[in-house]
Amino acid sequence: MSTTPSSATEPFAISIPEDLVPSTAPKTPSTTSVSLAGLLNPPLLLQDDPTECGGQLWPGGMVLAKYLLRCKMAELGGKVILELGAGSGLVGLALSLHPTDQPSHIYLTDLPPIFPLLEHNIALNNPQTPTSAHILEWGSPLLSTLPSNPDILLAADCVYFEPAFPLLLQTMRELIRPETVCYFCFKKRRRADMGFVKMARKVFEVNDVVDDPDREVWGREGVHL
């Protein structure tokens, strides 16, 4: 049996439920109050940028900020701190609002599209600790406004784009000295993410954090610190 197409077509309509149609409404920034399980009182205020990946809150930043506030503030007092890929500024600003053991200066760095957001959130919280926003593109020469040898280097959720791994590692090598301590936290989303850890172990001494009381919780969620 053979069939032939109809010589005429009849009009028809397809009805699609509204909840299956992506919203075309523009995304607008919002401000979030972050207390980090009561560790910050008053809480940190953060405006996000829903149009930028780096302008949102991610698990690694929450885990790292809570760990440092709970366990490491006594070691951070008077230190020069630089944060890579700071995004909305969660980690660095959380440290800047701690009432005691304040660092001497906190440098928040990220790409040019995120820079205005960092400046806004610094002004929004008005920290007592000197805190400043700077542009830093991984793999590029350090600007003269940034310290070449910070005491503490922070990086939260910076492992998300495999082609940038060598650039991130290059910048870390420029900033890390024998006396520098780097706290690096990320949520594993792809197998390739662990590839960065392997690269880092070839260059630096890398130790897993074991003294965080929440380690079992964030470990089950695929977060590494």
Tell me the fraction of residues in β-strands, as a range: 15-25%
What do the pLDDT scores average to? 87
Strand order of the largest sheet: 5-4-3-6-7-8
List how many beta strands DSSP finds. Answer: 8
Label the overall shape. globular
SSE succession: EEHHEHEHEEHEHHE
Structural class: alpha/beta
Q: Between the first and last Cα atoms, what is the distance in angstroms?
A: 67 Å
**Helix share of residues?**
25-40%
Name the poorly predicted regions: 1-23
Gyration radius, in Å:
22 Å
Number of helices: 7
Topology at a glance:
Blueprint: E1 31-34, E2 44-47, H1 59-71, H2 73-76, E3 80-84, H3 90-96, E4 105-110, H4 115-125, E5 131-135, E6 152-156, H5 165-175, E7 181-187, H6 193-201, H7 215-220, E8 223-224
Parallel strand pairs: 3-4, 3-6, 4-5, 6-7
Antiparallel strand pairs: 1-2, 7-8
Summarize the structure.
By secondary structure, the chain is an alpha/beta fold. The protein has 7 helices and 8 strands, in the order ββααβαβαββαβααβ.
Description:
This protein is of the alpha/beta class and 225 residues long. Helices cover 27% and strands 17% of the residues. The chain contains 7 helices and 8 strands, in the order ββααβαβαββαβααβ. The chain has helices at 59-71, 73-76, 90-96, 115-125, 165-175, 193-201, 215-220, and strands at 31-34, 44-47, 80-84, 105-110, 131-135, 152-156, 181-187, 223-224. The strands form 2 sheets. A 6-stranded mixed beta sheet has the order 5-4-3-6-7-8. Strand 4, helix 4 (115-125) and strand 5 form a beta-alpha-beta unit. Helix 1 (59-71) runs parallel beside helix 3. The termini are far apart.
